[in-house]
Design goal:
Radius of gyration: 23 Å
Distance between the termini: 65 Å
Helix content: 25-40%
Shape: globular
Number of strands: 18
Length: 449
């Protein structure tokens, strides 16, 4: 089961106060999806324009779909209140994605939209959620959107007529849908099913796409660190209902994944330690591409019940032993994005904020070149580095410019001009860099020139 993100619409996150539409593919679809020249996108913009907000929007979406406690926990901590635009006090995201098979034939196209609002007490609540199947040949023709379900103000207003367990779904979601999405609540209902009807399969598609096909790395911190205890609990529930889902093994595999994110200190279940050790060996080979003086990466482990507390020790050929948490910013950045790049290679959809931060320009370009020519998944990243434009200007839907007032412009080939030269000269629409050296005079104290 493969997924490709065709379009994303976001509004009301951090500094973004109007709807941004990000296209990753042509709006008109063909029978087969040809993603070879459309699977890498760079998003540029001045500081504070909202580039990080785009990645945060994806992270919010993924958590809303997968984690039924996400709103409750984040309302308690105030995290969402800091992410949702303070003027709008509303957040919305719409994901349009295609599921395709091994022959690259599109099997189904979905539109999934979620809206949040901040109530009078400063808490985030769900105002609406909609899932549609798109039947037409263009994703922008709303007349071809066939509703699967619709939730408004905490009430399940519509479920497609062919769903045989409609009444039960209404009953089991009463008073829940202001605090969690229908997709996150669906696990509880789906595990009781003895067979999978069309509705169940579609819900499972969305769950798999939103939770597992998407990987995000925000501000150099791996935000795809899925709580292993939570995953194992969900898997245990499903395993107890052996006959509940006929493709249970696939579902469990999608839940578990096969990577443990690298951090300064990580708990690794003893049963997974062999797999983790293999990951570290692969990580070593990756870092050696950048640092040929690296000899090996050792795992320092301490036993703790059914887990090992693990730390990574970098051992260099000159005998130096450096704990990963004391490594250079560049090495730590490479380690933090490694699992995301593994996901990209496996065909997942990966968002990375400030991909270029702490990575040398030459090495950064080589990673982008790899993604364009060899990666199997979809890579969307924010950056200030102009060098990738030289590679991506030959691709499609691969360079976007975000302005300070939340307007997005996509690069379209313009004669012999390059996006680099136009951007530097301030000639990209809505993105003029009309700053000169003398503008800084007087800003650092008493200038006497």
């Amino acid at each position: 089961m493969k997924f490709f993100l065709l379009q994303m619409k976001i509004n009301g996150v951090k500094s973004i106060d109007k709807e941004i539409v990000i296209d990753f593919y042509n709006s008109t679809l063909t029978k087969k999806i040809n993603y070879e020249h459309s699977h890498v996108k760079a998003i540029y913009g001045p500081n504070g324009a909202g580039k990080t907000g785009i990645v945060y929007a994806v992270e919010i979406y993924k958590n809303l779909v997968f984690d039924s406690n996400y709103l409750i926990v984040n309302n308690a901590t105030g995290n969402l209140l800091n992410l949702i635009n303070q003027n709008k006090k509303e957040f919305s995201i719409e994901m349009i994605f295609a599921r395709y098979n091994d022959e690259n034939i599109i099997e189904v196209v979905y539109s999934h939209k979620i809206q949040l609002r901040i109530d009078e007490d400063g808490n985030a609540e769900l105002s609406s959620e909609e899932l549609h199947e798109i039947k037409g040949k263009t994703i922008n023709d709303s007349t071809k959107y066939i509703p699967i379900y619709r939730v408004s103000n905490g009430i399940l207003e519509y479920v497609e007529e062919n769903y045989t367990r409609k009444e039960e779904l209404y009953k089991t979601t009463i008073n829940l849908l202001e605090r969690q999405t229908l997709t996150s609540a669906f696990i509880k209902t789906a595990r009781e099913c003895k067979t999978l009807d069309k509705f169940s399969i579609e819900m499972l598609d969305v769950l798999m796409f939103s939770s597992m096909a998407l990987t995000t790395v925000i501000q150099n911190v791996d935000m795809d660190n899925i709580n292993l205890n939570k995953i194992m609990k969900q898997v245990e529930i499903i395993q107890q209902k052996e006959k509940a889902i006929k493709n249970k093994d696939i579902f469990i595999q999608m839940l578990q994944g096969d990577k443990i994110p690298f951090k300064s200190s990580v708990k690794v279940p003893k049963s997974d330690f062999k797999s983790y050790n293999n990951q570290v060996e692969n990580l070593t080979a990756f870092i050696k591409v950048f640092r040929d003086d690296l000899n090996e990466i050792q795992i320092r482990k301490e036993e703790n019940d059914n887990y090992y507390e693990c730390e990574l020790i970098m051992i260099y050929k000159d005998g130096r032993r450096i704990n990963e948490k004391y490594e250079s910013a560049g090495i730590k950045k490479l380690i933090s994005i490694y699992t995301a790049l593994c996901d990209l290679n496996k065909g997942k959809i990966v968002f990375i904020d400030e991909f270029d931060a702490n990575i040398h320009d030459v090495l950064f370009i080589k990673l982008i070149d790899y993604a364009v020519n060899y990666a199997n998944g979809q890579l969307i990243f924010t950056t200030h580095n102009l060098a990738p434009m030289e590679i991506l200007q030959k691709e499609k839907h691969s360079i976007d410019f975000l302005s300070n007032d939340s307007r997005l412009v996509s690069w379209i080939k313009n004669g012999h001009y390059s996006p680099v030269s136009l951007y530097r000269k301030g000639l990209i629409e809505f993105s003029p860099f009309n700053i000169e050296a003398f503008n800084f005079l007087g800003t650092f104290g008493d200038d006497k020139r």
